[in-house]
Structure formats: structure tokens, C-alpha cells
Amino acid sequence: MDSLRDFLVTRGNYAMQQLSEIELQTKLVALNTKAKMPWVIKDGKLRKEFAFNDFKEAFAFMTKVAEVAEAMDHHPDWSNSYKRVTIELMTHDAQGITDLDFELAEKIENLLV
């Protein structure tokens, strides 16, 4: 059972597991059809860099993302440098990218509409 824990984690009422390479690519293509700038998979994380007009706009975006992430109980790894925000998503308990990461990425994209 311990080895199963490396691939499967229970969150809420459903189980999450790392997505296969085919699932990752399929979901990435679908996510990027809605995105102005693409999400990428880098170092085992779903990643995107966002550019804003100024720091205030970048920080306002981060505040909105924080509210969504808190509601989902799924928090990004991120950084901010002036008017740039970099977000990286992975499900730490599953040690990889799961459906939950793509769900959060889609909600983040919807904040930009």
C-alpha cells in the first residue's frame, strides 16, 4: 500500500493520481486553446508567466488567484517581480501534475477574461 501512496492521493471525495504523458499533453492543448500565452510543463510542473501593466495590476491578480486557490484548498508555487507573476502548479501529495492542477489553471485563466 505504501507504493500506491506515491501515485494515488485522496482529496475530498475523489482520488487523484499523476496524469500520464498522453493525458498531460491532451489537457495542455485544451487549456492553451483558451489562453493568450501558453502554459508549459517544465520540471514536472504546470507553469505560466504572466505580464501586467504594473505592480498594482500584478498584485491584484495574485490576490484573485489566492482566493480561488484557498477555496479549492490547492495552492500554487509562485513568484512576483514587479509586473510579472510566475505560477507553477503540481499536486505535492501526488508528487506530480493531476487533474486538480489543470482545474486551478483553468480557473486562473478565467480570471483574465
SSE inventory with pairings:
Layout: H1 2-5, E1 8-11, E2 14-17, H2 21-32, E3 40-42, E4 45-51, H3 55-72, E5 77-81, E6 84-89, H4 99-111
Antiparallel strand pairs: 1-2, 3-4, 4-6, 5-6
Detail the poorly predicted runs: 1-8
Mean pLDDT, to the nearest integer, reads 89
Strand content: 25-35%
Helical run tally? 4
Q: What shape does the CA trace take?
A: globular
Quick one: how many beta strands?
A: 6
Radius of gyration, CA atoms, in whole angstroms: 14 Å
| Main sheet makeup | 4 strands, antiparallel
Walkthrough of the structure:
It is a single chain. The protein contains 4 helices and 6 strands; from the N terminus they run H-E-E-H-E-E-H-E-E-H. It has 113 residues and is α+β, with helices and mostly antiparallel strands. The protein has a single domain, classed as Gyrase A, domain 2, CATH 3.30.1360. The chain has a 4-stranded antiparallel sheet, with helices on one face. Strands 1-2 form a two-stranded antiparallel sheet. The chain is globular. It starts with a helix and ends with a helix. Residues 1-8 have low confidence and may be disordered.
